[in-house]
Amino acid sequence: MKRHIKEKELIKYQFNLVSETRAEEISEHLKSCAACTKLAEQLKQKFSTLDLLREDISVPDELIKETLKQAESPAKTRIIPFRMPALISAVAAALFIGLALLISDSSVNKKQRPEIAKKPTASDYENRFVENEKITRNNVEYDSKESAARKLVYSRSGQKLAASDKIRKGVIPEKPPFAPASAIELVTLPRRENVQITIYNSADLTLVRERRNLTLKKGWNWLQFMWANTLIDPTSLVLEPLEQADKIDIKQLVFPARLKDIGRWLIRSETIGQVPFEITYFTSGLDWRAFYMGTLTEDERRMRLEGYVRVGNHSGEDYENAQTRLIVGEVHLLDKIAELARRQYPYNRPGWLLSDEKSESVVGDKLLEDESQELNGVLFDMELGMLKPKEIKKEGLSEYFLYTIEGRETIPQSWGKRLISFAADDIEVDSLYKYDEEHWGPRTIRFIAFANDKKHKLGDTPIPNGDVKIYGRAGEQDYLSYVGGTNVKYIPVDEEVELNLGTAREVIVEPVLMNFETDNFTFDSNNVITGWDEVRTWKINVTNTRQLPVDVEVTRGFETSYWTLDMDGQDVSYEKHDATHARFKTKLEPRSKRSFGYTVRTYHGKRQETGKI
Amino acid sequence: MKGKKLATIILLLISTSIAQARIKLVALPERSATVIRLDNPQATLIEEERVLTLQKGLNKVDFSWKGVSIDADSIRLKVLDHPGNVTLLNVSYPPAEAALVWEISSDSDYAETVRISYLLMNIDRLITYKAIADKAETEVDLKSYLVLRNFSGEDFEQARVLLDYGEAFEQGIDHEETKQMLFLKAPKVPITKIWTFDAEKLPWDPEQLENRNVGIPVSYRIKNETKSGLGQFALWGGKARLFQDDGQKSTIFLGEDTTGLVPAGEKMELYIGDSRDIVVTQRKMKDIRINVRRNNSNRVVLYDTDEIITAKIENFKDSKAVLTMIQHIPGQWDMEECNMKYERKDAYTLKFEIELGAHDKKELKMHYHRRNIRP
Fold this sequence. Notes:
In chain A, the strands form five sheets. In chain A, strands 1, 2, 4, 7, 10, 12, 13 and 14 form an eight-stranded mixed sheet that branches. Chain A has helices spanning 7-14, 20-32, 34-48, 50-53, 61-72, 86-108, 113-118, 122-136, 144-156, 158-168, 337-342, 371-375, 437-440; strands at residues 192-200, 206-216, 219-226, 232-241, 248-255, 262-269, 273-283, 286-296, 302-313, 319-328, 330-331, 392-397, 400-405, 409-411, 416-428, 430-436, 444-451, 466-474, 479-488, 496-503, 507-523, 529-544, 550-557, 563-568, 573-578, 581-588, 592-605. Chain A contains 13 helices and 27 strands. In chain A, helix 1 (7-14) crosses helix 3 (34-48) and helix 2 packs across helix 3. Helices cover 22% and strands 40% of the residues of chain A. Chain A folds into four domains: 7-168, no CATH class; 206-283, no CATH class; 285-505, no CATH class; 507-610, Chondroitinase Ac, Chain A, domain 3, CATH 2.60.220. By secondary structure, chain A is an alpha+beta fold. Chain B has three domains: 9-120, Immunoglobulin-like (Sandwich), CATH 2.60.40; 124-275, no CATH class; 278-370, Immunoglobulin-like (Sandwich), CATH 2.60.40. Helices cover 0% and strands 59% of the residues of chain B. Chain B has strands spanning 9-13, 26-27, 31-37, 44-54, 57-64, 76-79, 86-92, 99-106, 110-120, 123-133, 139-150, 156-162, 169-173, 177-198, 216-223, 238-245, 251-259, 267-275, 278-294, 300-315, 321-328, 333-338, 343-346, 349-356, 361-370. In chain B, strands 10, 11, 14, 15, 16, 17, 18, 21, 23 and 24 form a ten-stranded mixed sheet that branches. Mean pLDDT of chain B is 88; it is low at 1-7 and 14-19. At the A-B interface, strand 1, strand 4, strand 5, strand 11 and strand 12 of A face strand 10, strand 14, strand 16, strand 17 and strand 18 of B. Strand 5 (248-255) of chain A pairs antiparallel with strand 14 of chain B.
């Protein structure tokens, strides 16, 4: 039996690089030798995978040498027959490109060529590379790792060589690399360096800003962001470099097909190394609200007011060591963030009614929070060793007020946190009682009135809307009594506040109709009534059973714009509140009664034209 | 484009007749240049080039599609290499098939490049805006993003995307993929901030609203003009999100709105939210009939009114503001007395520009008559 054919020779044979006589010999041998046929088959398969790998195929140096020799000698050049399998042709083409590049390189530096063709060392490569860099770009830094990677590519694949050579010369290929998004991913997670959350109270909206250091390579970079089981609005995702912004271009954000809660940024970078980035997005599920506790002095002329904020987290994400900011203001939103977060496709799909096209506004339409959950985490925030409550810094911005909580907060999922916002002592308050049947029926309503201004030891910031609970003092030992609860609307600086504490039992307003008559009838030629006056005399009895002086405001409506009014007596005056209402104001001493009367004449039909209004 | 299961397929029929049940033995011509034209928001036009191997004489070319929605009437074929020698004779639609067949006459054997155009459904683009205002609210850094949405059923590996302005670009997009890319960047675009109280839209007397604030709508106005660094082309409509620099290297979100198409030279107005620091309390203080005229039966046939409206405007802000107040008086009217200047926007609309200092208070009083009212 003849000797087996060597592997190298079989490779040459497969690429038609052996002489014709030898080719015939090998062909004959293969017919009779099963082992060599198997090896030849294996080699064929190996080279056929080359097309898939596109790189990392080791080509024996001998073969390259041989190929070079053949290229230099036209007599030995063999035409690759068209009938060759396509994959083999591809390998040949790859080799040819590699060859061409090597040849072209030789024209630049003939002395170096054989060495490179043999096996370039890392230092050879570095030297060459540094030389190239000096010529083309001096200001780009490379790390040794990158160079090593390029070396590997350079020594094995001509095509890759071309690409990496371009990058080396500072030219980034125009076309970004294809990076298929897969359901199974292996990714490195850059640490969150810094998180800031800005929570709105008028809508279920939080702006999250997180800083992460990302390591970029020169050229194209893909960055994947995943947010499964959170309530992030993908349309709000923004990535921005905090440094070297001129060298980094965020080309696009791709929401891959058939994968949910994944976004991939394509970044073109002219720089290498770590760059701080900022990712911002909206999320739903974090909320805050203000609430207040007022404690009245015994004489109810002064009050201590404490304002609190309560932050809750149902976003599905823990926010650790986050700078927490709260926004007071009515923000205009087109879509609910929670709905955007739940969409199957971030921007929906064409043909669907876009929310943009709905002009429906959801201003102030906040999702109801889950009280029971939030109660679990009511905390007074005191850091160990510090033992003082955190302060809240307040600042006006545009139409909003920004509250920044001192230091950092950790708000785990499902937890809430309570912080004191402000406290003011000795706020002068007025006890005001209002009576307006059209508004509240035949009841007197109790109000506590003060102003959000310096005179009342407030006025630094607006008072956000929220619940108020008012307590009174009972007894000498500072026991408390609960006076009533209400909610307060947003109070701008300098505006007056009236806290509605509900029906008053100790101040009674009772209007009594004392007289009614009609007068001044007019008739037409058929003796049909065309006009008349109605005259009513009212007595308003006001009783203050409290041991405090009180202000009382009585509003009366006449259901017509045609009226005139006369007071019975001088001690109480009235003002025309609007076209159909008059408002009377009076003060009552402790435990006193007072009555005042008025006569109102209303004009009907033709009598409206008397010109007395 | 990938030749996938959903792909549109163009077939060069070698079979000569088209029967009801068609058996096809075909060559599959490769696709070359593909163009996605998104300049019309109503429909997306796809243009693709293919090389057809035509034989001398009559050729049948079958164009069919599966899993995609193509408007069959929109399909066009254009011969590029030999328009004089290759003639499209007719187009027929096979029954119950998403397909059409072209009959093409050729005077010789050609590898002919043809361009096929058609309207493809469920692929489109959206425009979104992001603007960051400076702390003083005098200018914004405006960015516009193009959002490509492909739910057509077709993967576009690489296509040339054309919009109605800006440069065309190469972009691939798979079926069910959405891509967002920066499209326009305009730094330091001047803005005007506007507060508007429209008496027809907002409650008059906050006192009547138990514990609720009346928010005065706040908008930013941006002019699409060269002075603003814009004005080159119309700005497409889309959702705009506005932020403000908080002076601490961070931003706050101010609000969002949608804008319609803004032609060059026109204004874009974006409503960001409501101000509760400007409070308007408007009341009608007088509303009576005067000059009542009656017929012989003593019925009122015509009258005028005597009306007084007062509006107290309070600015609780630390900064000044200009409130645009819109008042409406229906029918024929004349102003008896008004303590502030106004502009008559139309027959029934009055516009006041009320300048308010920080913590300022003003009161508007309008005394007017509506004339010749018939009951």
